[in-house]
Structure formats: C-alpha cells, structure tokens
Design a protein that fits this description.
single chain; alpha+beta; Jelly Rolls; Arc Repressor Mutant, subunit A; 10 helices; 22% strand
Length: 296
C-alpha cells in the first residue's frame, strides 16, 4: 500500500460544492459513511495527486473529460464514465488542454462490501465503467450533499441508505455480478470478527463460534475475501487504529490495547507493513493533511 501522499492545486469554477465529513458521529459496522461528497467544475489549473488509505472514490463525469493516471496507466474519463478508485492507490487527476471538467463524486470510508465490489469490477473494467446514464448516479450524489448539508449527525443513517443505492447501481451497471457471487456463509464470521477484533482473538475461538473446520474456513476467506483470516483481522485493527490516531489524542499504548494488539511493537509492525510508516509518522502527516484540506 502506498504511503500517505497529497499534492493538489484546486481550481474550482462557479457552481462547485463540496461537503466534508472526516469524522462520522457514529461507527456502526453495518453503515456506509461518506468522507467527502460533491459536484465540482474543475478549471484548467486543477491538479490532484493522491495516495491515502481508508476510503474509495466513486466519480462520475457529467461534462467534458479529464485525465486519470492510476498506477502509471492513464485513463481518459469522458461524459458518462464512472471511476472507482481505492484511494490508497497512487493516482493523479487533472484537466485536459485547459478545458473544464465537471464531476460528481463521493469518497466512501473503507468497508469490506465496498472492497469486494471494487475488486470484482476491476477484473472486467479495471477502474472505469463507460456509458452510464447520469440519472443512475448524480441524483444520489445530490441527495447526499443535501443530507450532509442539513445535519451531519442526524442524517448518517439516511446517507448510508443512499450510498447503498449507489453501490447497487454500480453493480448493475458493471454487469459482472451474478446471483451466485453473493455469499452469505461468511456473514456470521465477519460479524463475529468485527465484534471481537479488539480482543486477543485466536483461530480456535473463531472455529468454536462457527463450527467450521480450519481448512473450510481458510478456503472460504481465500475464495470469497481474497485474503486470509489473519489479514482480515489485521485490516480491522488497522482501520480502527488509523481512526483513533487521527481523531483522538490517545497514547499509542492505549490504541494498541484498544485494537486487540499485545504491545506497541505489533502496532508499529502493522503500520509499517500496511501504510509504510510508523504510527507516529501517520499521526503527524495525517493530521497535517486533514488541517490543510479543511482550510479549503
């Protein structure tokens, strides 16, 4: 995973609107949360280079076209194109030949359902779905803007419902999902892990809860989640640790225990292997970026 990176030159033309929601007021595992949502008309000097963890970007081109470079491969986003990008992947967004580029977009906080949808779509479309009717996506973006503009806390459940509609519309437009792709065998296991990742959970605890054999459970995670059980638990712990580091002043020892790790060295190892930096470096860079972005 790329380290935190953010280089940008904002050039928003009249009619642009962006709503920020960096710290949702609730933290329910069954909800979808928007980090940023907006409709922007990007001017000729717009440039955004980004590699940050924790969220996925869904972007729809309403007018004009723009250049999107992801992992050194360029895509030209034209009217009717949907971009779906894991924001931890290094990518660059910029206008072309000085012409305006109007987009509707939302950044959705990391969630295993969003991850699975993104991975599935990537197998057929990479990061772009072409020729999507504006009415399939943009009205939902506008609805979320309205809800978050009214009351961030009061409307989070409604926002989650609208995000779900966006994701289901993307699934339908991508034409890569079949009924047998939806697997509910892991639902109980995932819920158990979400409720217990902050404890020193062991494989035998999971097997006792599920009544599955070790081999069956490992095959399920590998085939359906494309990761091991250990990786999934680490991902849950990392996400919560990132949240606590950026939104609280808790000591790292407290955060370590809060996410089910035994010692600070384990937290350092988790961060260095996932985001390429120590927890201390992540706090310094992350809070600096949040402060800079909120100033715009």
């Amino acid at each position: 995973m790329d380290a935190i990176l953010s280089k940008y030159h904002d050039d928003f033309l009249d009619g642009s609107e962006t709503i920020y929601n960096y710290v949702p007021s609730t933290n329910f595992t069954y909800l979808f949360y928007a980090q940023i949502v907006g409709i922007q008309k990007l001017g000729p000097n717009y440039y955004n280079e980004l590699a940050m963890a924790k969220e996925y970007m869904v972007q729809y081109t309403m007018e004009g076209e723009g250049s999107v470079i992801i992992e050194n491969e360029e895509f030209i986003a034209k009217k009717g194109d949907i971009l779906i990008i894991p924001n931890y992947k290094h990518h660059i967004l910029k206008t072309i030949n000085g012409k305006p580029w109007k987009i509707a977009f939302i950044h959705i906080f990391d969630n295993e359902i969003v991850t699975r949808i993104t991975e599935k779509i990537y197998t057929k479309h990479k990061f772009v779905i072409h020729n999507v009717d504006e009415n399939k996506i943009v009205p939902y973006i506008k609805e979320i803007i309205s809800l978050l503009s009214d009351d961030l806390e009061k409307n989070e459940f409604k926002v989650s419902s609208v995000i779900y509609k966006i994701l289901m519309e993307i699934c339908e437009q991508s034409n890569v999902f079949k009924s047998d792709d939806i697997d509910f065998e892991l639902a109980g296991v995932i819920n158990f892990l979400k409720q217990n990742y902050n404890k020193p959970i062991k494989l035998k605890d999971i097997l006792t809860y599920t009544n599955y054999s070790k081999n069956h459970l490992e095959r399920l995670f590998k085939s359906k989640m494309n990761m091991t059980i250990k990786d999934f638990i680490s991902k849950l712990r990392l996400r919560k640790a990132q949240e606590l580091i950026l939104t609280t002043n808790m000591y790292f020892k407290e955060i370590t225990l809060s996410v089910g790790l035994s010692d600070y060295r384990s937290l350092v190892y988790l961060f260095q292997n996932s985001v390429g930096m120590t927890p201390s470096e992540y706090r310094i860079r992350g809070k600096k970026l949040l402060k800079e972005e909120k100033s715009f």
